[in-house]
Automatic annotation (TrEMBL), chain A:
Quaternary state and interactors: NDH-1 is composed of 14 different subunits. Subunits NuoA, H, J, K, L, M, N constitute the membrane sector of the complex.
Catalytic activity, reaction form: a quinone + NADH + 5 H(+)(in) = a quinol + NAD(+) + 4 H(+)(out)
EC number(s) recorded for this UniProt protein: 7.1.1.-
Source taxon at top rank: Bacteria
Protein's UniProt keywords contain NAD: yes
HAMAP family reported in the protein's UniProt record: NDH1_NuoH
Membrane topology: Multi-pass membrane protein
Summary of the function given for this chain in its UniProt record: NDH-1 shuttles electrons from NADH, via FMN and iron-sulfur (Fe-S) centers, to quinones in the respiratory chain. The immediate electron acceptor for the enzyme in this species is believed to be ubiquinone. Couples the redox reaction to proton translocation (for every two electrons transferred, four hydrogen ions are translocated across the cytoplasmic membrane), and thus conserves the redox energy in a proton gradient. This subunit may bind ubiquinone.
Identification of the protein by name: NADH-quinone oxidoreductase subunit H
Spans through the membrane: 71-90, 102-122, 142-162, 208-226, 255-278, 306-326, 347-365
UniProtKB/TrEMBL annotation, chain B:
Alphabetic keyword roster: 4Fe-4S, Iron, Iron-sulfur, Metal-binding, Repeat
Source species of the chain: Pontibacter anaerobius
InterPro entries: 4Fe4S_Fe-S-bd, 4Fe4S_Fe_S_CS, NADH_quinone_OxRdtase_chainI
Domain of life of the native organism: Bacteria
Domain 4Fe-4S ferredoxin-type, chain residue ranges per copy: 70-101, 121-150
Pfam families, A to Z: Fer4_7 (PF12838)
Signal peptide residue numbers: none
Name of protein: 4Fe-4S binding protein
Alphabetized Gene3D superfamilies for the sequence: 3.30.70.3270
Length: 367, 201
C-alpha cells in the first residue's frame, strides 16, 4: 500500500513537471516564451490546469454508452499505472519485485488498448470512434517490434526480472543473489579478454554489453512513441483531423485522468527503455583504476545513499529520453496511416527479428 | 526553359541525415531561447540584429514603441473646435455625434485665429465603431481633431468606448440653449416691433 501511494505521488509529480516541460520546450523550439504568469516563470501553470480541470463539470453525452464511457479513463490509467509496479527505482527499491516483470509489463500495458476502445466506442462519436480504432490498430501493431526488441534484451540478459537486468548493467552486479560469479566483458565478447565487471559505468550498460542492442533500443524507442500515441505517431489524436481522437467527449476529472494516463505512458515507456537498455539505475561513470567513479556515484546497496543515487540516475536518464520525445514532437510531422503501417510491418518488424537472431548469437559469445 | 529532372534522394543514410538535420534545427532554436527580443523601435540599431531567440514580447509589460505620429485613438481639442460638423458628415461609419448651440455672445477664437460661434453640448466619438480611416482629421478646418499614438484602450463596458469631448456640463448646455432661445425671442420681438412701426408710418 505504501509503495502504491509513493509511486502514485512520484508519478503525479513527474507528470506535472513533464506537462510544464512540454509547454516550455514547445515554446522555446518555436521561439515563443510559453507560460509566464502562474508562479515564477509560469512553473505553476500545470498545477493550475489540473485544478481547473477538477472544478469542471463532468459531462456525459446523452447518447453515450454511460457505463463504458465512465469506466474507460479509470481502466486506461489503471493499466498504465500497474506497469509501474515492476519498474525498479533503485537497488532494493522496487514496488513489486516479481520474477517475470518484463512479461507482466508487456501484458498489463496491453490492457490500455481495451480502455481506449471503450472510450472511443462509449463516446458514440465519429471522431472518438475513428481515433480509438486508429489507436488500437497502431498500438497492437507496434507491440510486435517493441516486444521483439525487448525479447532481444531478455535473450542477452537471460532474465525476465527487471531488478536482475538492472544489476547486470553495473559494477554492483555481483551483489545480486544468483549473479555472484557472473562476469561482464567489453562488448560482451569474452574472447577480447577485457573484463568490465568491476569497471561498471557506461561500459556495462546493455547497449555496450551487446552493441546490437543499440539497434533494438532505437526500434523500441520508435515503437514506444507509437504506443504512447506521441508525435510523429499521433494519428489517433490528430488535433487537426480528429479533433482529439478518443477523448474528444471527455471533460473535467475524466479528461484529467486520460491526460494523466497519456503522460504516465510516456514516463513508463522511457523508464522501461532506460531500465532495459541504458543501464537502469546504474551510474554512467566507470571505475578507472584507483579512481572508482562508479562506486563513488552508486552509494551502498540497501542504504539511503544507494537509493538516492539510484533514483537520481534513473530519473535523469528518463528525463533525457522524455526530452527527446518532446523534441521529436516539435520536429517531425505526423505520419500517414499507410506510412505508419509500412514502418511497423515492413521495416521495424523484420529488423527486430534480425536483431533477435543476432542477439541470440551474441549471447553465445558472452559465455 | 528546359526542365531538369529533380533528383530524388532515397536510402537509409539520406533519411537518417534528414531526420538528424531536423532535430538539430529544433535543438538550435531551443538553445537560442536563452535570448529574448528587446522591445525596441525600428530605428534602433539592434532592431534587425536579433534574428535568434524568443520573439514574443510579454505584451502588457513590454511593447514595441509605436511611431510618434501613430494614428490610432482620436482626440478632439475642444477649445479649438468650431463645431462645423464636417467630421461627423464625412465619417464612413457614423461614429461621431455632434450637437451644436449658437453662442449668444463672443466666445473667442481658436488657436489658429478662426472665430468660434457655436457651442458643442454633445461631441461624442464612439471608438468602438471608429475604423481609423483618418478622414475626419483631414477635413477638420482647424486641425483640432487629431489621431494620437495611443492604441491600447480596451474597456470592460462597451459604453465606455464612447468618448465625450464636450467642455460643457449638461446644466451649462441647457443654460446656453435658453440664452440662445431668449435671444431669438428678443430678436423676434424687436423685429415685430420694427415691422409694426413701419406699418404705422
Amino acid at each position: 500500500m505504501l509503495a502504491f501511494l509513493l509511486t502514485l505521488g512520484a508519478l503525479l509529480g513527474v507528470v506535472i513537471v513533464l506537462a510544464y516541460a512540454e509547454r516550455k520546450v514547445a515554446a522555446f523550439m518555436q521561439d515563443r516564451v510559453g507560460p509566464t504568469e502562474a508562479g515564477p516563470q509560469g512553473s505553476l501553470q500545470a498545477v493550475a490546469d489540473v485544478l481547473k480541470l477538477l472544478q469542471k463539470e463532468d459531462i456525459v453525452p446523452a447518447a453515450a454508452d454511460k457505463s463504458l464511457f465512465k469506466l474507460a479513463p479509470i481502466l486506461i490509467f489503471a493499466a498504465v499505472f500497474a506497469g509501474f509496479a515492476v519498474v525498479p527505482f533503485a537497488p532494493n527499491l522496487i514496488p513489486a519485485g516479481i520474477g517475470i516483470g518484463v512479461f507482466y509489463l508487456l501484458a498489463i500495458v496491453s490492457l490500455d488498448v481495451v480502455g481506449l476502445l471503450m472510450a472511443g466506442w462509449g463516446s458514440n462519436n465519429k471522431y472518438a470512434m475513428l481515433g480509438a480504432m486508429r489507436s488500437v490498430a497502431q498500438i497492437v501493431s507496434y507491440e510486435i517490434p517493441a516486444g521483439l526488441a525487448i525479447l532481444s534484451v531478455v535473450m542477452i540478459t537471460q532474465s525476465l526480472d527487471f531488478q536482475e537486468i538492472s544489476y547486470q548493467q553495473g559494477a554492483l552486479m555481483n551483489q545480486f543473489p544468483g549473479l555472484e560469479y557472473e562476469m561482464n566483458w567489453l562488448f560482451g565478447i569474452e574472447a577480447l579478454g577485457i573484463n568490465t565487471t568491476t569497471i561498471g559505468g557506461i561500459t556495462t550498460w546493455n547497449i555496450f554489453r551487446a552493441p546490437i542492442l543499440l539497434v533494438s533500443f532505437v526500434i523500441y524507442f520508435i515503437a514506444s512513441l507509437a504506443e504512447s500515441n506521441r508525435a510523429p505517431f499521433d494519428i489517433p489524436e490528430a488535433e487537426s483531423e480528429l479533433v482529439a481522437g478518443f477523448h474528444v467527449e471527455y471533460s473535467g476529472f475524466r479528461f484529467a485522468v486520460l491526460f494523466l494516463a497519456e503522460y504516465s505512458m510516456m514516463v513508463l515507456v522511457c523508464l522501461v527503455a532506460v531500465v532495459l537498455f541504458l543501464g537502469s539505475w546504474n551510474t554512467p561513470l566507470p571505475n578507472i583504476g584507483p579512481v572508482a567513479l562508479a562506486y563513488w556515484t552508486s552509494g551502498t546497496v540497501g542504504e539511503v545513499s544507494g537509493i538516492l543515487w539510484g533514483i537520481f540516475w534513473l530519473v535523469s536518464k528518463t528525463f533525457i529520453l522524455l526530452f527527446l520525445q518532446l523534441q521529436l514532437r516539435w520536429t517531425y510531422p505526423r505520419l500517414r496511416v499507410d506510412q505508419l503501417m509500412h514502418l511497423c510491418w515492413k521495416v521495424l518488424t523484420p529488423v527486430a527479428l534480425a536483431v533477435v537472431l543476432i542477439a541470440g548469437i551474441w549471447r553465445l559469445l558472452m559465455v | 526553359m528546359e526542365r531538369t529532372a529533380i533528383k530524388k534522394h532515397t536510402g537509409f543514410w539520406y533519411v537518417v541525415k534528414s531526420l538528424l538535420s531536423g532535430l538539430s534545427l529544433t535543438w538550435k532554436h531551443f538553445k537560442n531561447a536563452r535570448n529574448r527580443r528587446t522591445p525596441e523601435y525600428v530605428t534602433d540599431e539592434n532592431y534587425f540584429k536579433q534574428a535568434d531567440g524568443q520573439v514574443t514580447l510579454k505584451y502588457p509589460y513590454e511593447a514595441i514603441p509605436v511611431p510618434d505620429n501613430g494614428r490610432y485613438r482620436l482626440h478632439n481639442e475642444i477649445d479649438d473646435c468650431i463645431v462645423c460638423d464636417l467630421c461627423a458628415k464625412i465619417c464612413p461609419v457614423n461614429c461621431i455625434t455632434i450637437e451644436s448651440v449658437k453662442a449668444t455672445e463672443d466666445i473667442g477664437m481658436t488657436s489658429d485665429g478662426t472665430k468660434k460661434r457655436l457651442y458643442a453640448p454633445v461631441f461624442d466619438i464612439d471608438m468602438a465603431k471608429c475604423c481609423y480611416c483618418g478622414l475626419c482629421t483631414t477635413v477638420c478646418p482647424t486641425d483640432c481633431l487629431t489621431m494620437t499614438p495611443v492604441y491600447d484602450f480596451p474597456e470592460v463596458d462597451i459604453k465606455n468606448m464612447v468618448y465625450h469631448f464636450t467642455d460643457l456640463t449638461p446644466e451649462q448646455a441647457e443654460e446656453k440653449k435658453q440664452l440662445f432661445a431668449k435671444q431669438q425671442e428678443e430678436m423676434a420681438a424687436a423685429k415685430a416691433a420694427v415691422l409694426a412701426a413701419r406699418k404705422k408710418a
